[in-house]
Amino acid sequence: MSKQSDLHLLAPGHAGCPGCAPSNLLLQICNTLGKDIIVVNATGCMEITTTQFPQSAWRVPYIHSLFENAPAVASGVSAALKAKGNNHTTVVCIGGDGSTYDIGFGALSGLFERNDDVLFICYDNENYANTGVQKSSATPFGAATTTSQVGSKHHGKERARKPIVEIAAAHNIPFAASASVAFQADLKAKLKKGQAMKGARFITVHAPCCLGAGFDGSLSIKLARLAVQTRLWFLFEIEGGKLKLNFNPKVEKPVQEYLNGQKRFAHLLPPLFEEIQAQANANYARLLDWHERSVPAQKE
Ligand SMILES: Cc1ncc(C[n+]2csc(CCOP(=O)(O)OP(=O)(O)O)c2C)c(N)n1
């Protein structure tokens, strides 16, 4: 009889850190989308840790490509499937936030503009983990990385993260969404919905990096959940210009509950906590307002 792990489409034994949230996410992606997919993966931890020659953890067809062209390779695979008359296989392009927000963004924007038939998923671990934890444009305000240092004049990253879901949606693609590795039912629903649609679909998933953020891997899911509860990450989807908040963090939970558990925020003092809380509340107000204008019947 086969073991439970034999049924997983991402095999155990890859080289992700113990408790790695992005690795957990890959497993959820593969098991939710099923066997009829082709994965195109940009460089990054999720490529390095799953494909150490001569082994591979992938039990689905898999292509690694560069940051600059992974979305273009996915578009090409999609065009080839169409030419062969295959309209059932889902082309899934996976990249980290460095790949998605920064290094591969030009090709991704092109994919969106052409509305190519690809489900793009970003594992947002909020840094360039694979090269030693440099900041990306998804790194949150105030976080220390090797390129957003802390000293007498600097207090970590000086700018807020890019609103990548809104930037994706501004390309007028059919589906752009934000999910979290800790909210599995919501994530699964978004993956299934994205898979069932045609055209360019985008989902970014918060999957905090225990190595880069400085916390014990056993806390990955707890911290990912706290990010959503403290308004530092949101679960929402945008379709046809309308936004739906999938989880409403109505009761304000102090941002410190999330920040305190992580070394990258250990230097923060009260004025910066207040600034981060103000940013969190402003983002919540902005998204809630968009939600209420989009879905009036759901207004409470
Ligand atoms: C064009 C280019 N720039 C930089 C690199 C070096 N590099 C390799 S992995 C990596 C980090 C990528 O970060 P991200 O996409 O967030 O994935 P993660 O490592 O966090 O999994 C970088 C900068 C590269 N390989 N190619």
Set down the secondary structure blueprint.
Layout: H1 4-7, H2 21-33, E1 37-42, H3 45-48, E2 62-65, H4 70-83, E3 90-96, H5 97-103, H6 105-114, E4 118-124, H7 164-169, E5 175-180, H8 184-196, E6 200-206, H9 210-213, H10 220-229, E7 236-239, E8 242-245, H11 256-259, H12 270-294
Parallel strand pairs: 1-2, 1-3, 3-4, 4-6, 5-6
Antiparallel strand pairs: 5-7, 7-8
Helix pairs in contact: 2-8, 4-6
Thiamine diphosphate (TPP) is lined by residues 43-46, 67-68, 95-99, 103, 125, 127-131, 136.
Concise synopsis of the structure shown:
By secondary structure, the protein is of the alpha/beta class.
Largest sheet: 8 strands, mixed
Task: Indicate how many domains the architecture comprises.
Answer: 1
CATH class: Alpha Beta
SS class: alpha/beta
User: Could you tell me how far the N terminus lies from the C terminus, measured between alpha carbons in angstroms?
Assistant: 51 Å
CATH architecture: 3-Layer(aba) Sandwich
Query: How many helices?
Result: 12
* Overall strand count: 8
What does the radius of gyration come to? Answer: 19 Å
Order of SSEs: HHEHEHEHHEHEHEHHEEHH
Low-confidence stretches: none
CATH topology: Rossmann fold
Secondary structure: helix percent? 25-40%
The CATH H-level superfamily is Thiamin diphosphate (ThDP)-binding fold, Pyr/PP domains
Q: Averaging pLDDT over every residue, what do you get?
A: 96
Strands side by side in the biggest sheet: 2-1-3-4-6-5-7-8
Give the ligands present: thiamine diphosphate
Spatial shape: globular
Strand content: 15-25%
